Structures are given as structure tokens and as C-alpha cells.
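HUMAN:
Just now I want nothing more than another pair of eyes on a protein record. I would be glad if you read both lines and explained how they fit together. I have put the entry right below:
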Amino acid sequence: MKRGLIAWDKTEIPQATFQSRIDWARKTLAEQELPALVVYSDIWRSNQARYFSNFMPYWNRALLVAGRDGSLTLLCALSPRVYPWIRSYTVIEDIRPGGNLAQQLLQMCHDEGWRKIGIADLALLPWDLYAAIGAGDVEISDVPWRTLHPAPDETELSLYRRAAKLARKILAEELPGGVGLPDFEFAARVERKLRRAGAEDLVVLLSRGQTAPVPAAGATLGSEFSVTLAMEYRGHWIKLSRALAAPDTIAFLGSHFEARLAADAKTDPSSRVYVENLSGAYPYEPCVEADLTLGSLFAIHVEILRNGHRLFYGDTCVQGERGAELL
């Protein structure tokens, strides 16, 4: 669990997967004539460094440095006493104290003879680091994440599928028992099951039919309600929506979602459709279909109005060569 148990299950993410990702990054560096790539990490933005190394901090900031030649180096503001532990669950061997990350990076550039470096998603680097690094004599260049990660690899897709399967199963088990419960108690039951199954981060939103899904506030759930769930599993976010209602209504919702997946299908013009990108800089963000490219992970949610009640159904998809495909 994120910042509860940090480990590396090599049956889920083999060591060779990290090497292939690093090899691709180095190919990108060669194309842009850059000697090194820097990836920022903190407790809020850990997944990019995690993608290359499995490093995820309990707290504090770090810079993962991948030279075009050589091994990964972690400039880490954490105490050296935790370095053996970091080595135990990552592919990183070279860990250097980095109380002043910018100064340490500039010193490393000087030692290696690097006059120019690339920084992954430079616009998202915290301002203090950007200003301090930019004040040095090293030229910095933006390396967009989409060039480092053009599409999810098979290991990622397997983890996305595992996360989606887990969330679908637990929601199906818990939805019928939600009738008559306070919404926060229902949300707690769902969270307990998902956390015990390995969910790292979790957002549970509910709708009793009058609003879009919102955080629990103590209202009692009736015979019809919807749940929207965003869940992170091993650094991989999925999102889905499910409703509890009469069987014919659930069947209609499901068929409406299936129709939405088909590029040539027509959906009910009175319904609403919401698309969220799961492959961007943030775990999930609203988007339009034009933003999606081959390999994009995204969620589609459909909303119908039935007997004055708003009901929602959605799931996580990948953009394949033939369009949207359910994970």
C-alpha cells in the first residue's frame, strides 16, 4: 500500500521491464542530443520516477538522473540510513545525499562534463528547483513525458487490467448492501476491501440521483444510487462508475456504455458522456476525444436520467488501433 508498504513484486513488474524503459529513454536522449535525463519525484508526483526505477518516497523530494551512458543515480533528500532499504526495492544502486538538490545536480553535471540536460515535463518542475538549476551554467531542455512514454507497455496494461478487475469485483459485491446505509459507511466498506486488496490511493464519490457523484456527507443511500471510483494500484490509476437500480435500468446503462464504445454506434441524445484522460500529467483529468492518441488510457462515463434520478456507468479503456477498447 502506498506509503504503508513499499515493496517490489517482481512477478508483477520484472526487472527487465525497467531496463527496456530506460533503454527507450536513452534512445530519446540520443535523438535530442542530450547526455542525461532528470526526473523529479516527491510524495505527490512519484509515478514518473517510479516508472523507470520503482522508487517511491515516503516523503521529501528527489531527482532521478539517467545518463545516456551509465546507471541510474538518485539524488535524494532522505537520510542515508534509508539508502539500503531504497536499493532493496528499486533498480537504483547509486544514491547520493541531496539536501540541496539543485546544487547536487549541477555538481554532478560538472563532474560528468554535461553542458546540457533534459528534464522530464520541465513545466511541472517546482519553481524553486527550476530557478536554482537555471541559474547554473548548464542548459536545460524540456523532454515531454509523451516522448518518454508514448504508450503503456504490456506490464503496465496487465496492472491496469488487474486494478480494473479488482475494482469491478468489489463494487459488484458491495453495491447491493449499500441500501439504507449512510453514504460514508458504504464508502468506508468499499475502501476497506480495496485497501486490503492492495489499492494504494482511492477516491470514492457517490450520487443519490440528484447530483453528480460527490464525496460522502452522511446521507442515507436509497434503492437507487451510483458510485464513481478512482483507484491507484502499483502506480496505475483506473476509474469506473457503477449504479444500483432495477435490473432493466442497469441493463440499459450497460448497453448505453457499450454503444458509446462502438465508433459507429448512436447513443441516446438525451444522455451525457464524460471522458477523462488517465495518461496525462495528473491521475485523471477531463478531456475530449481529440486529445487521445494510440495507447492512451482513459475513462468513459455515461449518465442517464431515469424516473428523475441521475444514474452513472463508466469504465477504463485504452485507445487501440480500432478505437476505444475496454480494459
Q: What stands out?
A: The first strand starts at residue 36 and ends at 41. The chain has a mean pLDDT of 92. The domain at 154-326 is CATH 3.90.230.10 (Creatine Amidinohydrolase).
